[in-house]
Write a structure and sequence with these properties.
single chain, about 800 residues, alpha/beta, seven-stranded mixed β-sheet, 29 strands, about 35% helix, about 15% strand, flat, nucleotide-binding, Ribosomal_bL25/Gln-tRNA_synth, ATP-binding, EC 6.1.1.18
Length: about 800
């Protein structure tokens, strides 16, 4: 601890030695990265023993703003400062702009000096003339507002005319000119300005009421409020033509620093090949079904390409021949299309196996790879101790011969790997001589039996990104520590380098997202396949009735930030409801039927009432609903005892049958054994509309016999709740014990109106008062199954854990 304090005190002393205020010096030490940079700058400038404050301020600016892609030229720029050829921040800004374009290539000193105003002399006469012109242009404003005018605005006007003028000289000349015009400051000039009072407007109560009614009507017409979305959620990412900044800095255990960036030539060649387009890729591994986290990845990858009229690859990351299946490949392509994304090209990492092999040979020849015989366990042990492989310094020719033996199948599986010679002592374990190739005597689903050596993900991913000229390699945060190895490999092979940017994974409450856990749920029989509607797999969401447009709207809403958190399920449900409310026709159905006999209606009575597919909308179509003497309502809509704020049916109470007539309960029948109500007797008000009577408050969904004595069509309803009781089951050791036993409720004997009987798999409806439902693919003619997609109203997020 004392050592750390001593080092911090030494840094503060060093920083104050160049004229920084103590507070600024202390703040600089709090940022370890900046503190180290400033320390390097001071030593490079030869100012460790101190320097004038003016120079010190410029050194601070260099540490803060020097272009990262041109660090090799920093000592030269510091020489200009220390020799007083550059004296202002304006000059430094000009130099930075030039060096940013040059990068690591050779500097033309004449162009640098022109860009930064070196040798340009601005005389006091020139400054005075420019100040006089600026004061004259603002004379009326100065006379009216006097010293309350923002002098920095005037100062900016002068410096725009005299870019390389000394700032202090300009300011003092301006202040003198203003005082000559206005005279010395008076007491009124020195007094603080009076706060501006906001004028109060009084709105008559009647107008207020009318405005609120208008706002309410507008809100009802517009539907659920959705947060305003930015037009371009990708705007923070660099454009392809500026992709020559430093992508990363790799710090080696021996003190070396590798600052990795595209050279101007490499960037120019890339831009020529791709026409300056944004090029992204969606690279799933075909070893399982995609889930909602992949929907976010597709929104990021395909969405960015679409935003900028670029292109996006669908690339199967198929480096492991034992995990890939044709079933998964076909599913991924089909589900990406369902989500609304169209790939520019569909490729496989295995398409590049030959090129990857040739690059591995090049890596060996340059001394950056070696054949190793350590087992997996031995590699892990030496990694923990940061000890090198015994074969790390094997001769290049021997490595080439052994790698060729591996390729020809002359080495047994598990007896050798090709490892990258990176930095076995590095603090970042992803720089610990990662495996590039391993032996597997397994045919590849796409490449066939040509290969018995297969490249690793760490070796393949960055190389294929480069070979496909990807501009933006976007991935989730768990890959952030791999950034160093990603760029190290591209650098030592002298290949084009994409921009890498990581964003947070998508986790949703009461669900698991890892493929391993999803595989356990499916293969263990805890759910009914990869498309079980309780899962947040895209196949499961589709089967449940969720539109892809709602998923994409949800992904846009949560954004592509780096903030790791768990998103509440109700947030996804909000976008599902908004989409289904706009697109799902209304229909009448009853989930838990209770028989209701209209006693004052003839037994052979039949009529059709008119219902609306989209009630309250101008473009709503009508459909006919049969009404006969026997009607079914929800069993939950009847109580033996009426209560306040209860709008269902009770003895002696009236309710409205939706689109039909008011009915009044006159009696009921109970099961003598259980006491359960089995039938209701009601009367209906046939003259309700002609008499113009006020309807009752309660309105019920109902289904009638389609003809006297003929039962309505029946269906099965499946009601889904959260799959897990806890919000974050993935963090639990015994996560399977957290499964919610009530996550699926099947209701048989539900009844529907006749027009619903012709519904096809995938059709979506709003069952009035019940929720949004979709026809399940397991449905057959005469035996429909409806999945409840989501309830009508948003419930508060709660944990089911007791």
């Amino acid at each position: 601890m004392a050592n750390k304090e001593e080092m911090e005190a030494a840094c503060i002393s060093l920083f104050m030695g160049i004229g920084l205020e103590e507070t600024v010096a202390k703040n600089a030490t709090r940022n370890a990265k900046f503190s180290k940079t400033l320390e390097e700058v001071i030593h490079e400038a030869g100012a460790a023993s101190g320097c004038p404050k003016a120079k010190g301020n410029l050194l601070y600016t260099v540490a803060s703003k020097f272009p990262a892609n041109a660090l090799c030229h920093r000592p030269m720029l510091l020489g200009y400062i220390m020799c007083e050829h550059m004296k202002s921040n304006a000059q430094l800004d000009g130099a930075f702009e030039y060096l940013r374009k040059v990068g690591t290539t050779e500097v033309d000193k004449k162009m640098l000096e022109e860009a930064s105003g070196v040798g340009v002399v601005i005389t006091p006469e020139q400054i005075k003339a420019a100040v006089t012109e600026e004061v004259e242009a603002n004379k009326d404003k100065l006379l009216a507002e006097r010293y309350r005018v923002n002098m920095n605005v005037l100062l900016g006007g002068v410096t725009r005319k005299l870019k390389w003028a000394d700032g202090a000289a300009v300011r003092s000349t301006l202040e003198a000119a203003v005082e000559a015009l206005l005279g010395p400051k008076t007491e009124a000039d020195l007094a603080p300005p009076e706060p501006k009072k906001k004028a109060k407007t009084v709105t008559p109560p009647a107008v207020v009421k009318e405005e609120k009614l208008v706002e309410s009507a507008q809100a009802a017409a517009e539907g659920p409020a959705t947060p305003a979305q930015p037009d371009d959620p990708y705007s923070f990412l660099p454009k392809p033509d500026v992709n020559n900044g430093v992508h990363t800095t790799v710090n080696f255990s021996d003190g070396r620093i590798m600052r990795i960036a595209n050279t101007p030539e490499a960037l120019a060649a890339h831009l020529a090949r791709m026409g300056g387009k944004v090029v992204t890729r969606f690279p799933p591994e075909p070893n399982g079904y995609l889930h909602i986290g992949h929907a976010k990845a597709m929104f990021v990858d395909f969405g960015m390409a679409r935003q900028y009229n670029g292109v996006c690859y669908l690339r199967y990351d198929d480096t492991n021949p034992e995990a890939e299946k044709l079933e998964y490949i076909q599913h991924i392509e089909e589900i990406a299309s369902w989500m609304g994304w169209e790939p520019w090209k569909i490729t496989y990492s295995s398409d590049y196996f030959q090129q990857l092999y040739e690059l591995a040979v090049q890596l060996i020849k340059s001394g950056h790879a070696y054949v190793c015989h350590q087992t997996k366990e031995e590699i892990e042990a030496s990694r923990e101790k940061r000890e090198p492989s015994p074969w790390r310094d094997r001769p290049i020719e021997e490595n080439l011969r052994l790698f060729e033996d591996m390729r020809r199948g002359l080495v047994d599986e598990g007896k050798a790997t090709l490892r990258m010679k990176m930095d076995h002592k590095n603090e970042n374990f992803n720089m610990f001589d990662l495996i590039a190739y391993r032996i597997k005597f397994v045919p590849h689903p796409h490449a066939g039996d040509k290969w018995c050596i297969y490249p690793s993900y760490d070796y393949t991913h960055c190389l294929v990104d480069s070979l496909e000229d990807i501009t933006h390699s976007l991935c989730t945060l768990e890959f952030e520590t791999r950034r160093a190895s990603y760029y190290w490999l591209l650098e030592v092979l002298d290949l084009y380098k994409p921009v890498v940017w990581e964003y947070s994974r998508l986790n949703v409450t009461n669900n698991v997202m890892s493929k391993r856990k999803l595989n356990k749920l499916v293969m263990g029989g805890y759910v009914n396949g990869w498309d079980d509607p309780r899962l947040l797999t895209l196949a499961g969401l589709r089967r449940r009735g969720v539109p892809s447009t709602a998923i994409n709207a949800f992904c846009r809403d949560i954004g592509i930030t780096r903030n790791e958190n768990i998103i509440h399920m109700h947030r996804l449900e909000h976008f599902i409801r908004a989409e289904l409310d706009a697109t799902s026709p209304r229909a009448l159905a009853v989930l838990r039927p209770l028989k209701l006999v209209i006693t004052n209606m003839p037994e052979d009575h039949f009529e059709e009432v008119e219902a609306k597919t989209f009630p309250g909308r101008d473009n709503s179509e009508s459909y006919k609903v049969p009404l006969t003497r026997v009607v079914y309502i929800e069993a939950t809509d009847f109580r033996l005892k009426d209560e306040k704020d209860y709008y269902g049916l009770a003895p002696g109470k009236s309710v409205m049958l939706r689109y039909a007539y008011p009915v009044t309960c006159t009696s009921y029948t109970q099961d003598p054994a259980t006491g359960e109500v089995t039938e209701l007797a009601v009367t209906y008000d046939a003259e309700h509309y002609t008499a113009g009577r006020k309807p009752p408050k309660g309105v019920l969904n109902w289904v009638s016999q389609p003809a006297p004595g003929q039962e309505p069509p029946k269906f099965e309803a499946r009601l889904y709740e959260a799959l897990f009781k806890s919000e974050d089951p993935g963090s639990m050791e015994n996560w399977l014990e957290d499964l919610n036993p009530d996550s699926l409720v099947k209701l048989s004997g539900c009844v529907m109106t006749p027009q619903l009987a012709s519904a096809k798999a995938g059709d979506r409806f709003q069952f009035e008062r019940l929720g949004y439902f979709a026809v399940d693919p397991e449905s057959t003619p005469g035996a429909l199954v409806f999945n409840r997609t989501v309830t009508l109203k948003e419930s508060k997020p709660v944990s089911l854990k007791k």
